[in-house]
Amino acid sequence: MPRPQDESSTEPIQALPAAASAAKFSYMRHSTSTIEPFPTSPSDSSLVFRRSNPSAASLYASTLSPPGSRSMSPAGRGSPSRILSGTVFDLGQNRALPENVGDDPSEPLNLILKAFVPHVSVYASRDTEALIREKGFQHGLWELLRPFGENIQGKVNIRDSNGIGRIVEDFSIRFTRFGENIERPDALTSGSQQAQAPRSQNGAPERDAGKRSAINDIESVVERHLSYAEESFLGMPHQSIMTKNGSDSEAASPYYALYLRRLLSGLPISPHETFAHPVACIIAISSRNPAPIEELRRLYSETSQGERRLPSWVDGDYLRYYVLVHDEENDDIARSMGLFEQMKRHLGLHCHLLRLRCSQSVETDDDNIPLPRSDWMSAAEELAEIRRSENDEDFEDPSRYIFESDATAIRTFVREMVTQSIIPTMERHATIWNDQVASRRRGLTGRFMNLSKRFSVFGSNSRSSSSGASTSKDGYDPSGFYQADTSEAIMRKLADFAFMLRDWRLAHSTYDLLRSDFSEAKAWKYHAAANEMAAISLLLMPQQLTSKSRAETVDQMLESAFYSYNTRCSSPYGATRTLILAQELLRLRGGSSIDDAARWCTRLLESKILGSIGDALLKERLAICYGSKSGVGSWSWGSRRRKSAAWSVFAARAWAQQSKYIPAQRCLNEAKRMYETLPHGQGISRFAIARETMDSLQRELTEKLEFPLGHDRGMPEDVVDGGIDEESEALVDTRSRRASNLARGGTETAPLHNEEMSKDTNEDIDKEGFA
């Protein structure tokens, strides 16, 4: 079939995304007088421009064609049920997490493992940044290196606290700009002062705009991806898209995976956790520099003593890794080799010679490869790019290309730095801190020391209260942080190092020790973060947890973390991250853990922290959580199919209220499919109110998707006025319609929404329904 031509666009048709290319001939496939593009939210009126601007298509590639995820986007290809066969979802009840549970890159557990990784800062000289900008990277060396750190090539050997090696094939690091994205510490406040926080109309406590900005940015990013998908669905056959049920109901949708990835991206350098604190800093110069050794010493002094040095609560004893960037096209390699040997003599063995071409690679070059966009950019960064694509008519495709020789050199450099410098340094620090600091707190001696410290602190507080002076308690500064050289800060860094090296047992034991210390010091954000990571590391450990042990450990930790984040610290981001990660890990364990996961997920919904997008995504995930619990026997006793179907209906209604009719229809189809899997096979045919509720929602979605009244945007006038009829296919099979007609009777209920539908459409669709 020949491709339709778009007269309004001068770009080649192959530059358009697969989903958007079908949007040009919607009225050719559906010749009805009322069909028009899917309505969008009021905030995204510029989405019509996106279809004519193919340069913006790459910004939405993560949800248009996600590998191995549920086909919930216009370019979804097939079902990943084949990929999921033999994974964690096939294991038995009350299981422990297997070793290869995070192999699927689209699954939440893989995102969790890839989120908390070592951060490496990049600090380059001016001549180095100028050389990289000549290659087309305006943000310098950091922009060039960032995609290569997200997947270290080959296997990486990591030793735990007992000296036992473990092979990891998906290790990654995160490159950041030195001295940026620093979070200001919260001042010391009492719990009684924060308990009286004002409340909004919906009952949720009011929070500062800055503390809600992270959640708002994530919601905006996912909302734009959804709106773009709605627009891209124009003209695609509804029979093959809309009526397709989710066959792989346990896979994460690309929009939920995007929400979770942006939630875990862009971690700031904060005092209460050290995941974003630099483990190493790349100090780079180029072969163009006239005084290279002096320049390296100047850059080192600026990172440790100058104005750009990190705050006092960040440990300055991190690895410095020196890089000499050689210009292959203009500079002499013999001179650069001599300079590199001089660097190793003066600065040690943590050095590397990176050979790059200075010219810019374009798409037409023979030896180029596309440089992928970073999957772990922050929500604010991605939102800024999307807004720029909406507002700038001359917006260029952000795709970049790099010479294959440069890519090979960068991969070799990153792997060598990780395997020979970063991981050995982290292992050495973790061993020293564990032996010299943490071991003193364990056992009977550590308990006596902790008890004596409590009494001494109590006495000093009673004496200092009479003088009126505000003193620090247990090393906790009243400004809201621990100094980097205190034992609490060192143990927190030890726990985070162990977590990043995937030594879950050492990480959990250290977090557990810190919980009581932070509680006694009333360092509530530290206390919340320690409880959060103690629960997460315990759930990641490969051991089974009974219901009693979960109630005594995991539930108490999650309750303390959520209460401290949400009430004491007014941190909606921390509260959201805690419960979302916990419910994902609990769901993977199966059995009764699934009920606990659903309970915490419901707790997050009831807190009203999330926006409308997060609320709908979490309801959809809650349906998947209940649906993943398998029953016993031929009647599946103990399964949660009805609850799963009910939450799918709730999610469909939440999407419909936001004018996101495609995900709403998919959730409704999933609810119908789940009801049909019940042992008796009658679904909700005998429940009049429930049946009418689903029928009412189905009528609204069918009208919006097939007969969008009152909208003729993007349609020629001759098609709109011609009145060409179309024989629409029902969204359910014939047997379901007949069963619904026979069962429908007596009780009448009002539709769920206030929008009135036309009388003729209601009379036609009223004959259709769900069993």
Q: Can you give keywords for this protein?
A:
single chain; 11 strands; alpha/beta; 771 residues; two-stranded antiparallel sheet; disordered N terminus; 30 helices; five-stranded parallel beta sheet
Short description:
With 771 residues, this protein is an alpha/beta fold. It has a domain at 118-179 and 277-385 and 398-426. Strands 4-1-5-6-7 form a 5-stranded parallel sheet, with helices on both faces. A two-stranded antiparallel ribbon has the order 2-3. A two-stranded antiparallel ribbon has the order 8-9.
Layout of SSEs?
Blueprint: H1 18-21, H2 26-29, H3 47-51, H4 61-64, H5 81-84, H6 108-115, E1 119-124, H7 126-134, H8 141-145, E2 156-159, E3 165-168, E4 174-177, H9 191-194, H10 209-232, H11 238-241, H12 254-264, E5 278-286, H13 292-304, E6 319-327, H14 333-347, E7 351-356, E8 368-371, H15 379-391, E9 400-403, H16 404-441, H17 443-467, E10 476-477, E11 481-482, H18 487-500, H19 504-520, H20 524-540, H21 547-568, H22 572-589, H23 593-606, H24 612-627, H25 641-657, H26 661-676, H27 688-706, H28 717-722, H29 734-743, H30 759-765
Parallel strand pairs: 1-4, 1-5, 5-6, 6-7
Antiparallel strand pairs: 2-3, 8-9, 10-11
Biased composition (Basic and acidic residues): 753-771
InterPro entries: TRAPP_III_complex_Trs85
Protein name: Cis-golgi transport protein particle complex subunit
